[in-house]
Specification:
The complex is a heterodimer. By secondary structure, chain A is mainly beta. Chain A has no helices and eleven strands. Helix content of chain B is 0%, strand content 48%. Classes of the chains: A mainly beta, B mainly beta.
């Protein structure tokens, strides 16, 4: 059965800190890995990763995939209170569904 | 429409009643998904539509749950004889994904969800 495990499940930091969120997976037919941010309701798309070792970057957020060790990390530098959210990692496998991890609840305090 | 619309945004019902949740995907998106998110949990896959057909309904938790999609657009998720454990946020998402294998990319756009509370 396809499985996505995120860690930590929850994290509390101060503004300005750098955080690293982890996502490991076990899948039979990997296609892509996606990161989403969920603030109040609808998850919003952050990154899609398909190739190992190529960093995707958007402002203070970046992500990289390691297909040999089966994990991805999401980095957020110089965190702000607006970064407080649940960060979801999802795996696209054959069959078209996305399998999600439990998410990491990030709280950034002023 | 511009985004994925879901209704109602909030629904409170009594145990044993039936409920219908509606999803209006982004115009032109052929793929439509239903997920469920319980408090403090990740997203649990329920069902996937490609056009009007559902090639993967393996996530529906029991035969009280059903979904349909008409005209390749609007979808309705129906829960019969609701139970307290059905309380959750039901999220709908759509994507441009067409049938057949596409390398990588299945970026889903989510609606704001329907929060269901069963008393």
């Amino acid at each position: 059965e396809d499985k996505v495990v995120q860690s930590p499940l929850s994290l509390v930091v101060h503004e300005g800190d750098t955080v690293t969120l982890n996502c490991s997976y076990e899948v039979t037919n990997f296609r892509s890995l996606l990161w989403y941010k969920q603030e109040k309701k609808a998850p919003t798309f952050l990154f899609m990763l398909t190739s190992s070792g190529i960093e995707k970057k958007s402002g203070r957020l970046s992500s990289i995939l390691d297909k040999k060790e089966l994990f991805s990390i999401l980095n957020i530098t110089a965190t702000q209170t607006g970064d407080s959210a649940i960060y979801l990692c999802a795996m696209e496998t054959s069959g078209s569904r996305l399998t999600f991890g439990e998410g990491t609840q990030l709280t950034v305090n002023p | 429409g511009a985004g994925v619309s879901q209704s109602p945004s909030n629904k409170v019902t009594e145990k044993g009643k039936d409920v219908e949740l509606r999803c209006d995907p982004i115009s032109g998106h052929t793929a439509l998904y239903w997920y469920r998110q319980s408090l403090g949990q990740g997203l649990e896959f329920l069902i996937y539509f490609q056009g009007n057909s559902a090639p993967d309904k393996s996530g529906l938790p029991s035969d009280r749950f059903s979904a349909e999609r008409t005209g390749g657009s609007v979808s309705t998720l129906t829960i019969q004889r609701t139970q307290q454990e059905d309380s959750a946020v039901y999220l709908c998402a759509s994507s441009l994904r067409s049938s057949g294998f596409l390398s990588g990319a299945n970026v889903l756009t989510f609606g704001a969800g329907s929060r269901l509370t069963v008393l």
